[in-house]
Amino acid sequence: MSVTGVRLVVLCLGLLALPALAADKSVAPYLAAVEPKPTPPHFAAIVGKPLSLLAAAIGQKPKDTNRDPHRAAHQPPHAVAATEKPKAAPQVAAAAETPPAQLSEAELAAKGLQLFNDASLSGGSKASCATCHFSTGHTNNKTYVGLDVVADGDPNGRNTPTLWGVGERSVFGWTGQAATLEDSIRGIIVNRMKGPEPSKETLAALVAYVRTLKYPANWQLKEDGSPTADASAAVKRGYELYLNDGGCGTCHQLTSFDKKSRDDIGTGGKFKVPALRAVASTAPYFHDGRTASLREAVKMMWEVYAKKMESRQPTDAELDDLTAYVGAL
Q1: Among 45, 59, 129, 209, which residue is least crowded by beta carbons within 10 Å?
Q2: What is the Cα–Cα distance from 109 to 273, expressed in whole angstroms?
Q3: In this predicted model, what pLDDT tens digit does every residue of 137-172 receive, in sequence order?
Q4: Do 105-210 and 233-328 agree at the fold level?
Q5: Which CATH architecture has domain 233-328?
Q6: Is the dihedral of CA 199, 202, 205, 209 positive or negative?
Q7: Which region, left, alpha or beta, applies to residue 299 given φ > 0 means left and ψ of -120 to 50 means alpha?
Q8: What is the pTM of this model?
Q9: How does residue 17 score in pLDDT terms, banded at 50, 70 and 90?
Q10: What is the pLDDT of residue 179?
């Protein structure tokens, strides 16, 4: 049916209904209570409310004259379903990152040994830690100013100490400037070797390695430094002199055989008391390497103590015995 025909039918029905509604006013309240169904905007614009009621009654849908019949077929899927909410993309759980494996002490020390021999830690790759301490951590028995070897006894020189037993020291460096082993190693790399700032990982590995460097055992001494029953008579006598008349134990305290404080013994300033373990193989002696023989060093220190305490000087036999004991450390 055309739109014009629909209009005529609706108009006729409306005219027929008016007398009945006017005659029976009791129907009005019920009509007012009934809410009309929502009408599509395009029908209301064409024929008004009566046409919408008729269309609903006969089950016909009004034709959308503004719609292109070919348009929907060419619309993309997202345009047809524009009113639908887009589905959220499925959430994919991120893979958990695996933290780096923690190195064992043995693995860390092995890495430290490699770094100990790595010249790239120094400026211009001129030297490694092993240049002065060998790979065993012992001393090369030379005196240095920076990385330059100088004559023993040079007032600006520093005698290379052994790193054996370094983990047992109280403070570090000839002037006791480093409170920890980490600080000492960093200072050597940056200040003496003129190398770049080492990472925390590098320092941790180097510290782990040097802490594995132990003093060699001596069959004549116990771990606390006292003589064994099989020790020589000279070592036993020397031990008594060490603790008493020689005064050595005042500064080189058992069982580490060093002391945290610095002392001035007349060698050009205050210096840290060095450890005496393995001292027989660490010549030359004192911070500047001024003394070549252990016996000479023992004699000098007894004289320093005697002057300070106003006590007697040693005999040659006593020097021999004390040197025998200190050499066994």
Answers
A1: 59
A2: 28
A3: 999 999 999 999 999 999 999 999 999 999 988 889
A4: yes
A5: Orthogonal Bundle (1.10)
A6: negative
A7: alpha
A8: 0.68
A9: very low
A10: 92
